[in-house]
Amino acid sequence: MTRISAGGIITCLLSIVVCSAATKAQEPVLAEHAPVPRQVLTARTVLIGNGGSESYGASSYFHLTKYDGGPNRAYNSFYGEMKSWGHYELVTATGDADLLLVIRFTNPVVERIKSDDPNDWIYDPQLNLSINDPRSGLALWSITEHIDPQGDRAAANRHFDEAVTRLVDDLKGLILHPEVSSEPENIALPPGAIAAAQRQQRERHAAIGLLLGTAAGGLVASQTVSDACRDFDIHGCASRASAKMRNEIIGTIGGAIVGALVGWVIPVGFPR
Are residues 121 and 253 both part of a single domain? Predict the structure, then answer.
């Protein structure tokens, strides 16, 4: 018995070592940070281009985005922030520019929530900045800032302005501290993706709450009325059975509703 136990222990230890080695062998090797193109870091004059806004002119799209300022808002806001920064000389011709900065607003759908109504979908509005060579048009670098999609129209406009400010801050970080700005821990998570993940968590919580509430409500309701027929009173038995069934139906439905609501309002987080 002792020899078998010792052999089993040795086998387990060997298995652990082998599995650990295999796990380490499977771990991906992260590549070193590639350098930021020198032209991006040394530029002194830039031309800011207007990349437009994805279908911004449609009235239905305008209603969904909830942003004021029209299709040129991203361009106008970004231009103003860059002018306030004062790091570059802003020029109006590609021949005078060391870099071409093209700003564009997009609003892709990240979660349709099993509905055909666009008002029920979750969007991920974002600002995309493409840093290009003004001669060849080659993209040298790109920066994306996501806009928090939650809130009313006033909040949406405020979130838009905040995203423009963050975008310029990202550019500042890239130019002044290129070795730090591209680190994974310095990259913000998209608010739209977070909202979609949180909604999925709430739906799971609500489903669990519905099942538990249904079971609990039906169980409690079944104990409210006795359906025992000891006195051979057919009318009384039928009445008690009917009352018990009614209570069970009400309890089951009520428990399901309460359980689903409790599950929905439980605080959720986002796995990072």
Answer: no
Same domain for 184 and 57? yes
Which regions of the chain does DSSP assign to beta strands (E)? Answer: 45-53, 89-90, 99-106, 109-111, 122-123, 126-132, 139-146
- Rounded-to-integer distance, Cα 16 and Cα 10, Å: 10
Q: Write down the pTM of the prediction.
A: 0.59
Domain that holds residue 228: 197-265
Same domain, 179 and 207: no
Contacts of 271 (CB under 8 A, 6+ apart): 197
**Residue of 102, 130, 140, 124 lying closest to 189 (CA atoms):** 124
**Spatial CB neighbours of 35, under 8 Å, sequence gap ≥ 6:** 178
In a domain, 240, yes or no: yes
pLDDT digits (tens, 9 = 90+) for 29-74: 555 678 899 999 999 999 999 998 765 545 555 555 678 888 889 9
